[in-house]
Amino acid sequence: MSQIAEKKLGGVQDAATSPIAQIVLDGLSRPQKSLPSFLFYDARGSDLFEEITRLPEYYPTRTEAAILAEAAPAIAAHTPPGAVLVEYGSGSSRKTEILLDALPNLAAYAPIDVSQSALAEASARLGRRFPTLRVIPTLGDFSAPLILPASLSRRPRTGFFPGSTIGNFAPADAAALLTHMAQGLGDGGRLIIGVDLLKDVSILIPAYDDAAGVTAAFNLNILARLNRELGADFDLQSFRHEARFYAAESRIEMHLVSRRRQKIGLLGCLFPLEAGESIHTENSYKYSIAQFQALAELAGWSCRRVWTDDGDLFSVHELDRGI
Ligand code: AVJ
């Protein structure tokens, strides 16, 4: 066998055994084709997301940061000394700095993220900014069990789940995740969680379809990732980004819409797409404060405090395990 043929075969075998192969095949086999939104966050996607957070139209990040800055002293007042701060889906850990500034007596900061590059960069930066802080990064999905070093296992835990990442989950799955976090954070555990609020579509749609096209690039990057990691043959030019708001579900959906009738080759399968047919890539649920509190209570949390901005764009909740 020639060198080139061997290389190619090896590549196909790697792709077939990739942990995302089955998920992608399943998603593209459905009547409404879909891809899970965690696939956005490869190195390029994590960079594009950071760019999104700085867009004028994308209000959540800066609004949440302002709320956190105001709430930080009150959050600190309820945090016992020697607690461990556990962050789910930490990404760049930018917002964490606001809390870390207010929480000088933490035993450790434990960020969990699926992006190795984002974790490494954040750990290095925080190590420089907070030289005495013990940082324990975990590569993985935040639905994975929380495992801390034995020396920290009995410390009280405060979870941090900012950015309205909870909005990526359908309500039943969101409740299950909140229950999982309640278990991981243990008795006396607490959760600080950011939740985007329902508002007019004239604000919501541009936040997910910005003028500079960064969100479009972020959405399309999923296809580039599948080309690279699974040897798919998506032609990025033949798809366009679309953001839709569905009031009944109270969610934004992101789609990649096929500009023409085409067939996608992937792992030896062919997936036909009609012109105008879409691949659904993300849900972003929007809550009222009361709706979110009901969900949290259902998941076994007590809602202690909530902070919002003057425009009621975003909310930050403090949940605890109650009595
Ligand atoms: C990280 C899930 C909160 O839903 O607003 C941003 C991701 N998608 N622009 C969101 C996202 C498109 C974001 N979350």
Automatic annotation (TrEMBL):
Q: Which Gene3D superfamilies match?
A: Vaccinia Virus protein VP39
Q: Name one GO biological process term.
A: methylation
For the Histidine-specific methyltransferase SAM-dependent domain, which residue ranges apply?
22-319
UniProt cross-references to Pfam families, sorted A to Z: Methyltransf_33
**What is a GO molecular function of this protein?**
methyltransferase activity
Source superkingdom? Bacteria
Question: Per UniProt, which keywords does this protein have?
Answer: Methyltransferase, Transferase
Q: Does the keyword Transmembrane helix apply?
A: no
Specify the protein name.
Answer: Methyltransferase
Which organism encodes this protein?
A: Methylocella silvestris (strain DSM 15510 / CIP 108128 / LMG 27833 / NCIMB 13906 / BL2)
The upper taxonomy is: Bacteria, Pseudomonadati, Pseudomonadota, Alphaproteobacteria, Hyphomicrobiales
